[in-house]
Amino acid sequence: MKTLTTLFKNNVREYGMLIALITVMIFFQVQTDGVLMKPVNITNLVLQNSYVITMAMGMLLIIITGGIDLSVGSVVAVIGALAGVLIVRYDVNWVLVVALSLLLGAGIGAFHGYFVAYLKIPAFIVTLAGMLIFRGLTIALLRGESVGPFPRGFQNISSGFIPDFFHYEGFHITTMLIGVILSVLLIWLDLRGRKNQQKYGFEVTPFYFFVVKNIAITATVMGLCYLMASYKGIPTVLVLLFVLITFYAFITTSSVIGRRIYAMGGNEKAARLSGVNTPRLLFYTFINMGVLASLAGLIVAARLNSSTPNAGDGMELDVIAACFIGGASPMGGVGKVIGALVGAFLIGVLNNGMSIMGVGIDWQKVVKGIVLLLAVLFDVYNKNKSA
Amino acid sequence: MSDVILEMRNITKTFPGVKALNNVSFSVTQGEIHALVGENGAGKSTLMNVLSGIYPYGTYQGEIYFQGKECRFRDITESEKVGLVIIHQELALIPFLSVAENLFLGNERAKNGVIDWNESISKTAELLERVGLHESPNTLITNMGVGKQQLVEIARALAKEVKLLILDEPTASLNETDSEKLLELLLQFKAHGISSILISHKLSEVNKVADSITILRDGTTIETLDCRNDTITEDRIIRGMVGRDITHRFPPRDSKIGEVIFEVRDWNVYHPLHEDRKVSTNVNINVRKGEVVGLSGLMGAGRTELAMSIFGRAYGTRISGSAYRNGNEVDISNIDKAIANGIAYATEDRKAYGLVLIQQVKNNITLANLEEISTRQVINEPQEMKVTSEYRDNLNIKCSSIQQLAVNLSGGNQQKVVLSKWLFASPEILILDEPTRGIDVGAKYEIYTIINRLVSEGKGIIVISSELPEILGICDRIYVMRDGKIVGEMPASEASQEKVMKYIMTQQEVVEQ
Fold it and tell me: Which of A341, B408, B424, B467 has its CA 20 to 30 A from that of A376?
């Protein structure tokens, strides 16, 4: 049996981040007199961070390959602008526009990916160019002004909630039900994985740890569901995020393509000589990023209920910071979905908590910068200690 | 002429697990050209690195006396200060700086940190004149050929007021005229009282210019030959270089050799950067079922380049020629296709090209054949664990778990991981590039055993090795390569170290089939 110390040592990064997140949450909970964990604010926190999390999934893959994408903030803006112009000015059906936007996002990703993967131009430069190009196009499309408002259906992408089938006044029972189902599902999956490992004779964590872990997870899931149920229930965006996170967690841990992305980031030449088509893989990760950035662009536009020229400005930095805070290595080959997720939430809680406390945008940036630096310092320190 | 300018006494240098130099003594007299010869890995470069302070005082045992004074160099600047300058095989010039800037790099003609360009340029012109190089001091290094760059290196040594010049394989990448010129220059320097140490594999050159020859083998001095009085033949030198008996370092094998299973015909490859430089010329090689074929030659003979170009054109441009599997022409124009056609290439540089060091042993083993352990693009992790554990047990990979990171394994075990990766891809033809480089004797034996097992299963194996005893000990047939050409082929039963060495060293082509 693995001891808890070795378990903790092997996952010091993840546990460290989780502890940091919880500490920060407790800090703000106290400082804001409990506003942070109020049902309205929890829902807000999810909505505010949905686009950062969405893009962090794509950014993580790119960072694992050893690259970077600076253009995502501008892609968010240009897609939002296009959606605004088509829906508001030209009255195009919004569902069609959503489909078109995702397709265009893939196109933008392919544009970046082609230069990076096949013409071997550093990703930093290509996407810096993209950042300028798409910001410029945004301003041109919008002629410098905001366009809105959007029809109800489009707005619901970010401000809708899942329907309640029980119609109980003031409490969203469907949400609780989903919470229960999710908790049971998570416990079942963990149990099955554990059994499977035992079957192959691998070491597993002690049983009491398994129990404690699952109680903690269930408590968190049920607690969050309870908070959301007391407001308006689960936001539609959260469902979308859940699907994305599950999908990318699966891709990175269990799929052939994910394994190859890690191999490419860890040693591009060795991967190439092992028959991995590295340029094509790199091209795909950029297309994936483009689609996710355009999805985020739609969410942002729907949330603001207008397309603005400076939408998504500086957002690439939050997304990249989330990945690095979450333990991804700028050298490539290292990084986890769960890490990026925790990183995104940490940044989100910092933004949200400081806003509630009335800290200005100036000092918010200073604090975020320091957190990023500390997180990476922690990584380097750990690496040196283990080496 | 018998004043000793340099004396190295009882030098011993150990690396973890290996004694690279064992009690070596070596001396150079004033104004002579002293050649240092020996096989790859005999310890020539190590000895020179000790001398020039690259391995600082304290990391080796023994004493160094230069012009009668004991020297304890802590780094290369200290050895250069007394007039000992080493020119390495890989030139150390900065490509996008000019000749003048390179010549005085670290030694700038400057007052208070401001470079005096007039002095730099005029001094450079003067030095270039001395080495017979007619180039402007402002020419960028990148615009010059290798031969001229070599001369710039020598000019740089002169700028440091060299008394003893050390050249490590200076002519390895030069053509004949440039080599000729360089040797002339050494003779001129000698006339001016500058001594040189010349490390070279080209014995004809050595014979032409050397006043004395010291032979190193396995980290010890074998003998020093005086060329001024006696004539020394190349055969005499070769005998000194290889004179070692092969004991039971190789596991015995019953070869059951069948049909030709892989063949390459008229294979031509050009250098990827210098597109007019040919790295393989009209190469024809084949491998039979159950046969181990050796590819012998010096470093830089083009063996790795040939192997990688065959492996899905992983190296080189303008590749032409055809490949045949069991007599049928096959398309191996990219790595996927090469692997699909049953070809595998285990690299000589496992850290840079073979392993994803920051990842687990099991991930490395399955990388080249992930399809085998996945269904519909989803990896079956328990199955992966199972098959990789089997490889760990079969190849005796020593690791705390198959989830250990590859970076934490010893060289021999890393090599076994690379082998496992390719065995898991189940190839029919396996190209092993320096499979035992940098690993200890025990691990070598295990690798040889694995090779034996593979050929007994009917696979064909091509081994590239710079160690002649290894080539002779494990191969059924041997090709010798030089300058990108196959210059000899012989069955192992007819081969000897002397014979192979002759093919490697002789300047004219010997066609003897």
Answer: B408
